[in-house]
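> forwarded from #structure-qc
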């Protein structure tokens, strides 16, 4: 899957199945994710 995390598109490995894992990946990539991911869906959008 590919996710757009605050203007950056990243391929998420299959083992990253939860939003928490994706947030962890975003932090690992140096992206500051602000707010509740469940309430701010614009921060994380699945892309084709």
């Amino acid at each position: 899957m590919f996710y757009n995390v605050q203007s950056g598109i990243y391929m998420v490995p299959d083992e990253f199945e939860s939003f928490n894992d994706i947030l962890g990946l975003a932090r690992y990539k140096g992206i500051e994710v602000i707010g509740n991911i469940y309430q701010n869906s614009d921060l994380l959008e699945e892309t084709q």
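QC bot note: The radius of gyration is 10 Å. The chain has a mean pLDDT of 56.
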